[in-house]
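ok, trying the design again with the full structure, not the truncated one.
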């Protein structure tokens, strides 16, 4: 289910409210470009600053706008197991096709606590689960051995979004799990090396702006056409890096705004992009002919 390119959707804002019209345009552009699936209310969707009603509304809108034309993988993770259970049940009721569950952040649980957290959630739903390990934001990783235990004991835990920044993790995860367990890159700039090591796709930030190009790179790698995949990787590598010169999703929202797709608004504690990095991002976008 998780082989391909999945866009970690931004949540557009206008006047500090969800811009539903811009969100619909974004999803429509993704589907027209042939994206494999969409991922609302993840990190890129600014889920930490959405209240519970807004979180549910974004999932509801994603399901409504996608109209079964691509899978909707809803973010439902939390550092509170009870809250994650509630969000999981809400996402399932709203029609999500699968779940993205981030590692419990801030609490710094032991790996046994991480295991128990995810197992409890998996037992509460029939939906497929994509684990999400991003130690730079969570303070912990989901250890490869813990992923292996979860995959063995929970049939609906079938994949992981790996955003720890180390290609070696793909080999560790591959050795800890069965061949059917799927690994996706959580970093655009690492998608190609991840796939060369056994990953099957990406949960992408860049594909908010260039879904067709990221999809072509991933599909080429899946077809073992690494010459083509490598060419696309290097063509867009500067963009992959510059989308993270300030905290995500600030730069990608600026890029989308420059193309007239939405406002660049983010919620505090995120703030508008500083002038120097903005100029650098704009120069990269112009060099790639990615500004209308």
């Amino acid at each position: 289910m998780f082989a391909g390119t999945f866009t970690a959707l931004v949540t557009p804002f206008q006047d500090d409210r969800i811009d539903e019209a811009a969100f619909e345009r974004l999803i429509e552009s993704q589907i027209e470009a042939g994206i494999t699936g969409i991922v609302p209310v993840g990190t890129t969707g600014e889920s930490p600053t959405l209240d519970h009603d807004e979180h549910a509304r974004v999932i509801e809108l994603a399901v409504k706008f996608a109209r079964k034309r691509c899978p909707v993988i809803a973010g439902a993770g939390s550092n509170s197991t009870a809250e994650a259970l509630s969000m999981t049940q809400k996402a399932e009721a709203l029609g999500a096709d699968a779940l993205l569950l981030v590692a419990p952040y801030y609490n710094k649980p032991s790996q046994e606590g991480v295991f128990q957290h995810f197992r409890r959630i998996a037992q509460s739903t029939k939906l497929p689960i994509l684990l999400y390990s991003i130690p730079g934001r969570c303070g912990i990783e989901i250890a490869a051995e813990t992923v292996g235990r979860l995959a063995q004991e929970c049939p609906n835990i079938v994949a992981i979004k790996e955003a720890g920044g180390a290609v070696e993790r793909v080999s560790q995860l591959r050795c800890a799990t069965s061949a059917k367990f799927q690994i996706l890159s959580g970093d655009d700039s690492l998608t190609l090396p991840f796939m060369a090591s056994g990953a099957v796709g990406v949960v992408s930030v860049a594909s908010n702006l260039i879904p067709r190009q990221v999809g072509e790179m991933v599909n080429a790698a899946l077809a073992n056409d690494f010459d083509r995949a490598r060419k696309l990787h290097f063509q867009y590598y500067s963009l992959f890096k510059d989308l993270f010169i300030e905290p995500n999703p600030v730069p990608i929202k600026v890029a989308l705004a420059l193309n007239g797709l939405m406002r660049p608004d983010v919620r505090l504690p995120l703030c508008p992009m500083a002038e120097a990095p903005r100029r650098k991002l704009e120069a990269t976008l112009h060099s790639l002919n990615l500004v209308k």
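Keeping the full-length input from now on. The chain is about 45% helix and 15% strand.
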